[in-house]
Write a structure and sequence with these properties.
heterodimer, A: mainly beta, 45% strand, B: 117 residues, mainly beta, 7-stranded mixed sheet
């Protein structure tokens, strides 16, 4: 399974944008990039996913590099409720089961 | 989004007993369900993948005789921790996939905290 690398932690001020980076230099052509976040003592929550083009939804935006070796999750205005661990996961067809392998994720701290 | 539930949300048991955890997809049919384990301050570790009506596929290092998985219907999967010991205490999380494509996201349950005394 292709691997992702994320910073262990990041901080942001409330109401400011946050850019969470993810490196995935071994991504294959059929791998989708998925982002999830996990609040304390809860299961992960889907945030966004994409393949090649940038994606927007009500929660966030996903910017994917042209060579697809990196991506950035963008929270446009961080709130205290956005404090969580954010996971960048690649999902493709190599194994046939589309299983998620979680990395260490980025722990986002939002300062009031 | 689709909803996945788990029951119980927490359980405390004595060493040597067995514990069953249920995972249900409430508003969609899940052909594939996944079980994860998470220790404090660590990431999720995939334990096994289960497809409805067939045997589960376990990840390397996970004992299939200790962690019994049954996926009897398209909306229910169960994980039974047999002869539980204190080292099995952990946060167990299931997820279900709606659809078969690589682009389809998984939906996660809220987790079950198991404490073995």
């Amino acid at each position: 399974d292709a691997k992702t690398t994320q910073p262990n932690s990041m901080e942001s001020n409330e109401e400011e944008p946050v850019h969470l980076p993810c490196n995935h230099s071994t991504i294959s052509g059929t791998d989708y990039i998925h982002w999830y976040r996990q609040l304390p003592s809860q299961g992960p929550e889907y945030v966004i996913h994409g393949l090649t083009s940038n994606v927007n939804n009500r929660m966030a935006s996903l910017a994917i590099a042209e060579d697809r070796k990196s991506s950035t999750l963008i929270l446009h205005r961080a709130t205290l409720r956005d404090a969580a661990v954010y996971y960048c996961i690649l999902r493709g067809t190599t194994s046939g089961t589309y299983k998620y392998i979680f990395g260490t994720g980025t722990r986002l701290k939002v300062l009031a | 989004g689709a909803v996945v539930s788990q029951h119980p949300s927490w359980v405390i048991c004595k060493s040597g007993t067995s514990v069953k955890i249920e995972c249900r997809s409430l508003d969609f049919q899940a052909t594939t369900m996944f079980w994860y384990r998470q220790f404090p301050k660590q990431s999720l570790m995939l334990m096994a993948t289960s497809n409805e009506g067939s045997k589960a596929t376990y990840e390397q290092g996970v004992e299939k005789d200790k962690f019994l998985i049954n996926h009897a219907s398209l909306t229910l999967s169960t994980l039974t921790v047999t002869s539980a010991h204190p080292e099995d205490s952990s946060f167990y999380i299931c997820s279900a996939r709606a659809g078969a494509g690589a682009s389809n996201e998984q939906f996660f349950g809220p987790g079950t905290r198991l404490t073995v005394l």
